Amino acid sequence: MERAAAQIGAKVRKQEEKAPTPSGPVEQQFPFGATWILADLGGKSIGGDAPSFNLDDKLRAVGFGGCNTFSMSLYPIKEQKLAAGSIAMTRKTCGKEIDDTEHTMLVTLHSLPKWHLESNGDLTVSGVGGTLRFKRGL
């Protein structure tokens, strides 16, 4: 009886050794210090002065929403999400289309969105406001 239990135990250990270890998707490192320029919002191209932001290594995002400048704390966290602090911004109005784009971008960045660096170097951010695709600036 003991010998049978030992043989079963040895078989189980062998199977565990052969079993592949689970590996989920590899988390990417957020590229601090890069300037990101909004290329499209939900597949719709952005015209005019494109919104942009830069996230430094002190986790401070500063940017331009298309009409107003803004700053906020922005933290890349597990599962490739972004957690945001309060937004400080100027309060100009520049017309419905520009104001709506700015609002959507800031709501999306502030909604605990998921982010992903694409193979072509673009940054995609998806959250409550929609999907934002940024191109890396100079």
From TrEMBL:
- Annotated Gene3D superfamilies: 2.40.128.270
Pfam families noted in UniProt: META
Q: Which InterPro entries match?
A: DUF306_Meta_HslJ, HslJ-like_sf
Start and end of every DUF306 domain? Answer: 33-134
Q: Write out the ranges of the annotated region (Disordered).
A: 1-28
- Looking at the UniProt entry, the stretches that span the membrane are none
Lineage, top-rank taxon, reads Bacteria
Spell out the protein name for this chain.
META domain-containing protein
| UniProt organism field | Lichenifustis flavocetrariae
